[in-house]
Amino acid sequence: MKSLLSLIALAAALGGGVAQAQYTDGIIKIGVMNDMSGTYKDLSGQGSVIAARMAAEDFGAADKGMKVEIVGADHQNKPDVGSNIVRTWIDTDQVDVIVDVPTSSVALAVNEIVRDKNKVFLVSGAAASDLTGPQCTPNTIHWTYDTWALANGTGKAIVKTGGDTWFFLTANYAFGLALERDTAAVVVKNGGKVLGQVRHPFPATDFSSFLLQAQASKAKVIGLANAGADTINSIKQAAEFGIVQGGQSLAGLLVFITDVKALGLQTAQGLVLTEAWYWDQNDTNREFAKKFAEQNNGVYPSMVHAGVYSAVTHYLKAVEALKSDADGKAVVAKMKEMPTNDKLFGQGTVRADGRKIHPMYLFEVKKPAESKGPWDLYKLRATIPADEAFRPLSEGGCPLVNKS
Amino acid sequence: MLELLGISPQALFGQLLIGLINGSFYALLSLGLAVIFGMLNIINFTHGAQYMLGAFAAYFLLQYAGLGYWWALVLAPVLVGITGVIIERLFLQWLYKLDHLYGLLLTFGLALIIEGTFRNFFGSSGLPYSVPSQLTGGQNLGFMFLPNYRGWVVVFSLVVCLTTWFVIERTKLGAYLRAATENPTLVRAFGINVPRMITLTYGFGVALAALAGVMAAPIYSVSPQMGSNLIIVVFAVVVIGGMGSIMGAIVTGFGLGVIEGLTKVFFPEASNTVIFIVMAIVLLIRPAGLFGRTT
Q1: Which of A174, A321, A355, B49 has its CA at a distance of 20 to 30 angstroms from the CA of residue B252?
Q2: Is residue B293 part of a domain?
Q3: Which residue of B has its CA nearest to A299?
């Protein structure tokens, strides 16, 4: 009798509660990993952690009863360091989603680990288009931009305005090589020629020798297939060696607003670049930028930061709808199913290969006289509509895409 | 013949000149290191951070005091040299009688602290510092366009290096210094203030690093990690040249800059490592370095 009573009591207790959301150890833990101390610190760094926090706050996680915790780590641009951090995060610290990860070599390594452990990987910082191509997985979404979109934006625009011979100055690792490959393809497709390339160690401080080789090639355009401090130094040293006066032009294939700020408008004016988001495009962006800058030492958000905000927002929506964060594949499938809608990127979608789709923008750096504020750096040259901005689904080589 | 190697003579001369320019930074920095090690037996790992402090001092002098490059060339080494003197008086003087390793650990820790502090406040994209107006523009040498500033770097470094060598090896002051290193007690007995000489020597070595930093500021942006990128290479240069040899440091600095420049032409991917390959080879053949004396 007693055992029957206790059995009934137990059943009542278990069955009586409302359906509870089953989050792994009750917390949705977001791990923001990027370069916090080196070449890519300013375009990602601590700012991405701030952006993730702002996303969680704006989502109202606390009011909805969801406990969200955000942790950050520095991968120092090294794949082995990044891999170790991610493994420890997932195995020991119950982290559910990895966000940001600039430096494509690290991102590609993390991509594999997250798939094996069935968590979620939202890439904002890294560029290599392989993440939605041969290396695509059902656990990864490539959010903000990629090398194909940059090549398609900047590369195509420059070739169409007469820059038909190119020489590449490439950072010798996954990202630089991917960017060089994608841009070279665009150049050739639009009738141009690639005269040569030189691959510099990553990271490097002195580009004089490589720039000299670029000068000797007599190419009309010197494509800078590098990023962050490498691009800044390449542009500065190119100015020193009279490359632009000599008639060649520089194509910054991946330039962030933080780079333009470091260069100064005097040096950077006229530079044509492609970005996914700019703070001065509308009032919502401006308001976000102001709030972000207050927490980030006055430094305005880059597109990478905006991408982190957007990705975390959509992730939280998906997890809320599923009421669980345990199964990475299921969460990503939900994120692909739900159309995206956040205050920074507006409406968009996530494709089957994990590519987030939104318009890209071709900007030109203002002349010093045209700028009315310390961060008023860009003017809009063109908008590339969302359906043209990214590599067509069929051309990627992603195994997840059904071949019809 | 050179065309067979895929490069024209003009391009090659251009690369050699670039290599010489980079070599002058290596020479200046390794000179400071060699002076400090040769005279004080301290392995000064803070050298890279002091180079960075020199560049930042130049930046601050411009930003907050309106003093340009030429002032910075004189003031920044003095200011950073004074911090070097403070470090020596506070920390290093207790370590002279101990194993070299203690000096290395102390200076390494100081380097980490200094760089970390600056990185915390100044980010990594680098702060701009413009080339002084008298040195802008360049000369078209036919085989390449040489920016005036880079030409100045080579000439000025050569002058500073040779002057330092002359002072240490050929003047009375240098003789006192060398004597004090070999036998401090005896030299003290002659009434020469040895501890003060040692302190000033450390300050001088640090000032040399800061001078290199000021000269680097216009061409390599002023950033907290500029020192750590360079210091390992400079140590390799000093080891190849011979740890205590002044002339060795100068010659090796310029020479390795040229070798690195040539590598960037023929095999750019290896340009980061070629100096270490040379170091490994030299140590196998001549363990004391090219100009070193086996003690």
Answers
A1: B49
A2: no
A3: B123
User: How remote is the C-alpha of A64 from its chain's centroid?
Assistant: 28
Question: Helix A45-59 crosses helix A283-295 at what angle (to 10 degrees)?
Answer: 120
pLDDT digits (tens, 9 = 90+) for A67-81: 999 999 999 899 999
Which of A382, A101, A100, A374 minimizes the C-alpha distance to A260?
A374
B135 found inside a domain: no
The domain defined by A148-275+360-389 folds into: Rossmann fold (3.40.50)
Q: How far apart are CA B202 and CA A251, in angstroms?
A: 46
* ipTM rounded to 2 decimals: 0.75
- Domain extent, residue B276, equals 17-114+144-285
Q: In A, which residues are within 8 Å of B15 by CB distance?
A: 209, 212
Give CATH 3.40.50.2300 domain extents, chain A.
24-145+281-358, 148-275+360-389
Question: Is B136 contained in some domain?
Answer: no
**Helix ranges restricted to H, A17-126:** 45-59, 79-91, 104-117
B124, A42: Cβ pair inside 8 Å? yes
| Selected residues 8-27 of chain B with any CB under 8 Å from a CB in chain A | 8, 10-11, 14-15, 18-19, 21-22
Q: How many domains does chain B have?
A: 1
Contact B39, B171 (CB under 8 A): no
With an 8 Å Cβ cutoff, is B147 touching chain A?
Answer: yes
Q: Chain A contacts of B23, Cβ < 8 Å?
A: none
| Token pair listed for A366 | 């203002």
Chain A residues inside the 8 Å CB shell of B221: 229, 232-233, 236, 262
Query: In this complex, do B125 and A233 lie within 8 Å of one another by their Cβ atoms?
Result: no
Each residue's pLDDT tens digit, B117-159? 998 888 666 777 888 888 888 888 777 788 888 889 999 999 9
Rounded to a whole number, what is the distance in Å from the CA of A47 to chain B's nearest CA? 12
Select from A172, A204, A236 the Cβ nearest to the Cβ of B221: A236
What does the CA dihedral A266, A270, A271, A272 come to, rounded to 10 degrees? 160
Alpha-helical (H) ranges within chain B are 9-40, 47-65, 69-90, 100-122, 148-170, 172-182, 184-189, 194-216, 226-241, 246-266, 274-285
Architecture of domain A24-145+281-358: 3-Layer(aba) Sandwich (3.40)
**Partner residue opposite B126 with nearest CB, options A199, A215, A232:** A232
